[in-house]
Write a structure and sequence with these properties.
heterodimer; A: mainly alpha; flat; B: mainly alpha; Four Helix Bundle (Hemerythrin (Met), subunit A); 6 helices; elongated
Chain lengths: 87, 195
């Protein structure tokens, strides 16, 4: 396994671990606001990992990379706003 | 990891795959963004439905499908890395593994829908359940498109169409698959985690 394959494997295992972490949060171990904050963070991190390491959007200054990364800032923010509004 | 293939016109920045697939991906992401806004809107309007909603669902199916999607995406990455080193047979095999992941996702989703019906989780009279079916059916359609793209790439790989120097179509199919994965990364917590 070369370095790119090893990195892809590490990212995959990280994504699985974050998924299990999200599922655990769904058990209601934290108050809803804190759960929403951690879930939003996990969504942002998972999205960024896929965009960078799976989709290969690594070029600095790329508008496509910026748009995709921005997506995974805006959507977690939507989760936070929704939680803050008491939904 | 630099997965970007240089297929852009002269003078334009390189994008992974090709520009056409990115138009499709950005359309898909925009479509899902509207659905996420609808989720937030209905959650604000019907907080009781959404507070009780995740407990109505089969969380095990949601977790399993998330793991399957992420694993299938990993197999797709391995296909791309294999063709980059000109190993077309390995690339085809990884693509088949990715496709099997997609089909497993569809199977789990079908079993989940059957479980829902048996437990009265039907899309009438509850905003959360209606949103659940709205999001998951739309995503399911995109998974089917992604599977068809993978099948096309498998057939092309089988007949020797791809190599280290030219694998734009394979990369495009893989990128679309990852976009479908990205949508599920958001859908999973919205439906199964956030109370």
């Amino acid at each position: 396994m070369n370095i790119d394959e090893s990195r892809a494997t590490t990212v995959w295992l990280g994504l699985l671990a974050l998924t299990l972490g999200s599922a655990w949060l769904g058990e209601g171990v934290f108050p809803p606001g804190l759960t929403a904050a951690v879930v939003a963070l996990i969504v942002g991190v998972k999205g960024s990992l896929v965009i960078r390491h799976y989709m290969g959007l690594t070029e600095p200054g790329s508008r496509l990379r910026l748009a995709m990364r921005l997506y995974f800032v805006v959507v977690p923010a939507l989760i936070l706003v929704s939680a803050a509004l008491g939904g | 990891m630099d997965l970007a293939a240089n297929v852009a016109p002269v003078g334009a920045p390189a994008v992974p795959g090709n520009r056409g697939i990115w138009v499709g991906i950005l359309c898909e992401m925009s479509e899902f963004a509207l659905m996420f806004l609808a989720w937030a809107w209905f959650r604000h309007g019907h907080p009781e439905d959404f507070r009780a909603g995740p407990a109505m669902l089969n969380a095990g199916a949601g977790v399993a499908n998330t793991a399957v999607m992420l694993t299938s995406g990993y197999f797709a990455v391995r296909a791309l890395l294999a063709i980059r080193r000109d190993d077309a047979i390995a690339a085809r095999n990884w693509l088949v593994a990715a496709l099997l992941g997609g089909l497993t996702f569809l199977l789990i989703k079908a079993l989940e829908f059957r479980w829902n019906i048996e437990h009265g989780v039907v899309g009438t009279g509850n905003s959360f359940v209606a949103m659940y079916y709205y999001l998951t059916f739309n995503h399911l359609v995109h998974v089917v498109w992604g599977c068809l793209g993978l099948i096309w790439a498998i057939l092309r790989a089988q007949f020797g169409a791809y190599g280290a120097a030219d694998h734009e179509g394979l990369e495009a199919a893989v990128l679309y698959w990852h976009a479908t994965d990205l949508a599920w990364i958001v859908i999973f917590p919205l439906l199964y985690v956030l109370h």
